[in-house]
Amino acid sequence: MTDEPAPRARLAALRRELAGSGGGYLLGATLAQSAGQGAAMACNAVFFVRVVGLAPSAVGTVQSAAALTSMALAVVVGPLADRYGARPVAVRLGLALAGAVAAYALVADLAGFAVVHLLVASLRTGRQIGESALIADLVDARAKFRAYQRSVQNIGISLGTVAAAVPLYLDTRPAYLVVMLGNAVVIAVAALLVRAVPGPRVPVRSRARTGRLALRDRRYVAVGLLCGLMEVRDSVLTVGLPLWVTAHTDAPRPLVSALLFVNTAMVIALQVRASAGAATVRGATRVMRAGGFALAASCAVFGLAGGTGGGWTVALLVAGAVALTLGEMWTSASSWTLSYDLADPRAHGQYQGVFEMTSGIGVLAGPILCTTVALSHGFWGWAGIGAGFAVVGLAVRRVAGRGGPGVHQPVRAEAV
Fold first, then answer.
1. What are phi and psi of 32, to 5 degrees?
2. Residue (of 338, 306, 299, 341) closest to 320 by Cα position
3. Mean pLDDT along residues 287-310
4. Which partner from 111, 286, 352, 412 sits 20 to 30 angstroms from 295, CA to CA?
5. Closest CA to 77 of 375, 350, 381
6. pTM for the predicted model, two decimal places
7. Calpha distance 153→121 (Å, rounded)
8. d(CA 236, CA 331)
9. Is 267 in contact with 154 (CB distance < 8 Å)?
10. Tens digits of per-residue pLDDT, 253-292?
11. Apex CA 189: angle with CA 184 and CA 193, to 5°?
């Protein structure tokens, strides 16, 4: 039994795990990027509607178009990471993204917003693919590292959203521009941190030509689509739940902020622990099944809250938020392991690109399901979405388990 206090012991263990891998630089980049992202999430839409004068519906349409464009380009960026190296691709796209984000300050009409936002969304997706492929090259315990990364990301977003209170209070063009330009600066800093990461253990020039392996890997694509459907959980949290609480329950409106805080705090504190059972393909499928059931339970509880009153409503909503967060952490950890361990090690770039593309299905479907199914049909609508989560969790275990724990043999650096 260690004499060190538990938090200090965990910090020491993290330092040992990151030593020599460059993971510390990646976590630093994640913190910088997410802090800027948190501030931008709180301010950007307000800026373009209130200051630039765009219609909210037009902003939403451009955002949906950007999501579709990013999904299409994801399969293009992946092979570039395999050919030229994940680190150079992540760094260059990160620096280009910083310039594109800074260009938000020049937007004066809908056409300008569409051009800049599509560019920003595409570059952000490409940078993410490069960083994901870099993790595959450098880190052995990938799911655990991604769990640390997710916790750090939530810390950064929390810091950014708190800082955004100042420009939102001032509500002036210069205040919002400070947020945008500050976001561009931290994105550039993050890219330089990624540049400091050591090179991959398997030289890029030594990797075999892989063609379009990922798109021809039917099991991988199917698992990616199923994991993408689990991404509907994000819309449940950020779209469905706030609208349900404020319009269909008697709970006080500030409870929405409290529920979001519960989610963020739990992810920061528990994401690493929640990923412990998902380190292998078999373990990941079991955890994914548990996550699907947890998400299903959360939806049922949210639906029940629409027919109660007073303290019972608040208690059900809090319980649902806890179940939703558990499901989010479990399904996220499982997705990370499956995205890496079912991939061909010769082509992590294109495999991560395909996984990024398929994950977009949940981003597109989520708001539609929440607003047309859950909000329109009450308890039975919520129950239907929950049943979908449970079915997807079971399907992942069935599809990912075909052919054993993996279809690809690792490429050893010393054999290249």
1. -65, -50
2. 299
3. 96
4. 352
5. 350
6. 0.82
7. 18
8. 14
9. yes
10. 889 888 988 999 999 999 999 998 999 999 999 999 999 9
11. 145
